[in-house]
From TrEMBL:
The chain crosses the membrane at residues 698-720. Residues 40-76 form the Leucine-rich repeat-containing N-terminal plant-type domain. Pfam families: LRR_1, LRR_4, LRR_8, LRRNT_2. GO terms for cellular component: plasma membrane. Residues 1-35 form the signal peptide. This is Receptor-like protein CLAVATA2. It comes from Ziziphus jujuba (Chinese jujube). The keyword Transmembrane helix applies. It is found in: Cell membrane. It is a single-pass type I membrane protein. Keywords: Cell membrane, Glycoprotein, Leucine-rich repeat, Membrane, Receptor, Repeat, Signal, Transmembrane, Transmembrane helix.
Length: 731
């Protein structure tokens, strides 16, 4: 009280000493809250603090003079001029914290979040007796939490999250140092040990975040009315408590990614205010009890990645017109039986994940009633029947993922109504027929995986309309005909896999400069250090953010190499020259075709990691020096007609098996094929000799047998498309 009086007196002194205009100013000023001068003691302390801080962005450059409102991030009490709040969030500050920062007796808020402070938490913070909020999140504070902080008896918020090297045991006093503590956030640190018992009883506590630490011990029940509880990604064990003290208050409960065992207790559904429940990545077992029905307040329910079994719950949440579940994730469990029809009554559902279970039966046609649905993942089950036509009712659909089931039938032309669709994955089913031309309407498509089905027909122009395409796999189907000239004209394309079909003719030339990724978009640098994944495994990770109270936001990560796979077809001709300039290409597989000609220099293809040209009829010398292709880990040129000499110093020594089945090739490192005569032979000669067998002779055969017929039929007969024509005319 005394101090306050003194400073009021100080503020008045100029009134008596100075002339009238100033009196007027000061009177005017007393109406504004920020007119008072910064207390000189506090000013000195701030200057000292500033002197030790590194401030490359010059965020504190306004810290001059005595006008409090000019001091960025500080707030003064409007009559005394004492600093009551220091909020320096996100100012790119780093360096040391001068002990002068602990000399603000009236400071109520200290926020240093989102900077780069790399010191231990100063123990003298315990002197800041008036502190109500201490927020040090997202820095690089390290060490332990000093015990002196337990003197902060007025503290309401203690936020330490996002300091990876801050750890040790959770301070034993944290549950009973301030009876006013409402928010304790220590997530994304390195705390270990158990939750101190007293914390379970701290009545004032509402918001507790201990997620992403190394905490362990049985999960105990909390005895206060919590609003927010996050214990995600720790090592908590035991069974799930009921949280009954929070029955009316708890809105977010996240205990995902721990080692929780046992069943899901029905009492969890009595949490009346719950909006988010995440129990994923635990070891929960048994059936979901039929009486587990959540209120209409629940927005997000994630039980994925457990060992839950039995039938899918037929009713998991109450739905009303206005509200209801947005996201339901029951994937990666052992649920069996059919998809219950009741699920289609969750009208507000935006994302449904049922993948990696043992579900049988058909996809319910009424799924089309879920008009807000944006992501549906039913993959890796045993579902049969066809994709119901009614699914076009989900007109906002962004991702339709039904791969690895037993689905049959054709792709319906009406699916063109799904014009928002970005991801279509129907791979590994038994779907037949052709790609309907109408699918040109799905112009938002970015990822299309139709691989391992029974699809047939030629590549129609529908695909050209998918101008945002990043991944296209038609592998292991029965597609035939020529590869269209627009094949390489997709700007965003990352991977095309056409392997294991019956495509014939030439590889189209030209337009190789269109795709940014093939031409070194450089966007996939992160892949470089990862092991080579088999091309069959498309990996899209969909991540979801709950935005607002009735909206989800989706994004996905596509991890695949930048590549082209045309293997196991009947392509002939030479490799178009443009291929050899693709600096971004990581994967190129042209094996098992009937390609011929020379393979030019690979030197420009600096991103190459896998090159398979085996089982073709390439000839001439192997491509020149590859020692600069440092990422190349798989090279297969076997079973071709290469000839000549492969010197060891050109970098081929790394790939001992790469040249098998090229009888005229002399590989220096192995000595194979380097017989006394064959070594000096000119490459061209060997090429001519090799020519007698191989696919080209098939062509000759085709010509010679048909010479007895007239020429027109011959030409037709030798291309795949003509066979249909001949059959038709015969009938
Ligand atoms: C000083 O601040 C308090 C609360 O911050 C406010 O209620 C009061 O009106 C302010 N006084 C003046 C003179 O601005
Ligand atoms: C202090 O600065 C603020 C904003 O910069 C200004 O509105 C106010 O008049 C200044 N007060 C004095 C006493 O200079
Ligand atoms: C933050 O500071 C670093 C140097 O410490 C500087 O390189 C960087 O550009 C700064 N960032 C911003 C957003 O000012
Ligand atoms: C306060 O800041 C304003 C600009 O924000 C500046 O014009 C003024 O000169 C500053 N006052 C003092 C006393 O530094
Ligand atoms: C600190 O300042 C930021 C913006 O500069 C604001 O968003 C935040 O709410 C403030 N925090 C406190 C505790 O006053
Ligand atoms: C921390 O410093 C690094 C450089 O040292 C900078 O890139 C980064 O933006 C800084 N972070 C913050 C939150 O200022
Ligand atoms: C303080 O901490 C919380 C973390 O709980 C954070 O969300 C908030 O934005 C932080 N920063 C400020 C300036 O209040
Ligand atoms: C906190 O609780 C422990 C026992 O659990 C007790 O020894 C200690 O005195 C308490 N401290 C405060 C400040 O209440
Ligand atoms: C689970 O937690 C571990 C650390 O305990 C972390 O490495 C892992 O990424 C987390 N998994 C998920 C799915 O968040
Ligand atoms: C649930 O927690 C897991 C593990 O931390 C996380 O990967 C997942 O995104 C969370 N689910 C939702 C819907 O937020
Ligand atoms: C749900 O779908 C069924 C069959 O598709 C249909 O008969 C019914 O009218 C739909 N209900 C609503 C509310 O749209
Ligand atoms: C897949 O579906 C076919 C009929 O379309 C059926 O004969 C077969 O048994 C099913 N396979 C499995 C594993 O369900």
């Amino acid at each position: 009280m005394g101090k306050r009086w003194v400073s009021v007196f100080c503020a008045c002194r100029p009134l008596m000493l100075h002339a009238l205009p100033l009196v007027f100013v000061m009177l005017l000023c007393s109406n504004f809250s920020q007119c008072v001068d910064l207390d000189p003691e506090d000013k000195t302390s701030l200057f000292l603090f500033k002197s030790r801080v590194q401030d490359p962005s010059r965020s504190l450059s306004s810290w001059v003079g005595s006008n409090c409102s000019n001091w960025t991030g500080t707030f003064c009490e409007n009559q005394t001029g004492r600093v009551i709040s220091i909020n320096l969030t996100n100012m790119n500050l780093s360096g040391q914290i001068h002990p002068s920062l602990c000399k603000f007796p009236f400071l109520e808020e200290l926020v240093l979040s989102e900077n780069n402070f790399t010191t231990p938490i100063p123990g003298c913070f315990g002197n800041l007796q008036s502190l109500k909020t201490l927020n040090l999140s997202h820095n690089r504070f390290h060490g332990v939490v000093p015990d002196s902080l337990m003197r902060l008896r007025q503290l309401r918020e203690l936020v330490l999250n996002g300091n990876r090297d801050l750890g040790g045991l959770v301070p034993w006093w944290v549950g009973n140092f301030s009876t006013k503590l409402e928010k304790l956030d220590m997530g994304f640190n390195s705390f270990r040990g158990e939750i101190p018992e007293r914390l379970l009883y701290l009545e004032s506590l509402k918001h507790l975040d201990l997620g992403n630490n190394y905490l362990s011990g049985g999960l105990s029940d909390f005895h206060q009315a919590l609003v927010y509880l996050n214990l995600e990604s720790n090592q908590f064990s035991g069974t799930l408590p009921c949280f009954s003290a929070s029955a009316q208050s708890l809105t977010v409960l996240n205990v995902a990614n721990n080692s929780i065992v046992g069943g899901i207790p029905t009492c969890i559904a009595s949490l009346q205010a719950l909006t988010h429940l995440n129990l994923s990545f635990n070891h929960l077992t048994y059936k979901i009890p039929p009486r587990l029905v959540f209120t209409e307040k629940l927005l997000v329910l994630d039980f994925s990645n457990n060992d839950l079994s039995g039938p899918l719950p037929s009713k998991i949440a109450v739905t009303t017109e206005k509200s209801g579940l947005l996201l339901l994730d029951l994937s990666h469990n052992r649920f069996s039986g059919e998809i219950p029809l009741k699920i289609t009554e969750l009208k507000s559902l935006q994302a449904l994940f049922l993948s990696h279970n043992l579900l049988v039966g058909e996809i319910p046609a009424r799924i089309g009633n879920l008009t807000y649905l944006q992501v549906i993942d039913l993959s890796h089950n045993l579902l049969s029947g066809s994709i119901p036509l009614n699914i076009v009712g989900c007109f906002q659909l962004l991702a339709l993922i039904v791969n690895n089931n037993n689905l049959s039938g054709e792709i319906q032309p009406e699916l063109d109504a799904l014009d928002s669709l970005k991801i279509l994955d129907i791979s590994n089913n038994m779907i037949s027929g052709e790609i309907p031309l109408t699918l040109a309407g799905c112009k938002s498509l970015e990822i299309v995986d139709l691989s391992s089905n029974n699809l047939s027909g030629t590549l129609n122009d529908a695909i050209t309309k998918w101008s945002n395409l990043r991944y296209l796999s038609l592998a292991r189907n029965k597609f035939n005909g020529n590869l269209p000239s627009w094949l390489f004209t997709f700007e965003e394309m990352q991977l095309m896999d056409f392997s294991g079909n019956k495509f014939s003719g030439f590889i189209p030339d030209g337009n190789f400069n269109v795709s940014r990724n093939f031409n070194n978009g450089g966007g996939t640098g992160k892949m470089l250090k990862e092991p080579i994944v088999p091309m069959q495994n498309l990996d899209t990770q969909i991540s979801i953010i709950v935005a607002g109270s009735s909206e989800l936001r989706f994004s996905y990560i596509l991890s695949s190499m930048v590549g082209i796979d045309l293997s196991y077809n009947s392509l002939d001709g030479e490799i178009p020259g443009g291929f050899f300039g693709l600096q971004g290409l990581e994967y190129l597989n042209l094996s098992y075709n009937v390609l011929h000609g020379q393979v030019l220099s690979l030197e420009k293809m600096r991103s190459l990691r896998v090159l398979d040209l085996s089982h073709n009829s390439f000839s001439g010398q192997v491509p020149g020096n590859i020692s600069r292709l440092q990422d190349l880990t798989i090279l297969n040129l076997s079973f071709n007609g290469f000839s000549g000499f492969v010197p060891e110093k050109q970098g081929y020594g790394r790939f001992p098996g790469a040249f098998a089945g090229n009888p005229n090739l002399c590989v220096e490192s192995s000595g194979e094929g380097c017989d006394s005569e064959s070594l000096p032979v000119e490459p061209g000669k060997a090429f001519e000799e090799e020519n007698v067998e191989g696919p080209i002779s098939v062509w000759l055969y085709c010509l010679s047998t048909s010479i007895t017929f007239y020429f027109g039929v011959v030409a037709l007969f030798c291309s795949a498309r003509s066979r249909n024509y001949i059959l038709q005319t015969k009938v």
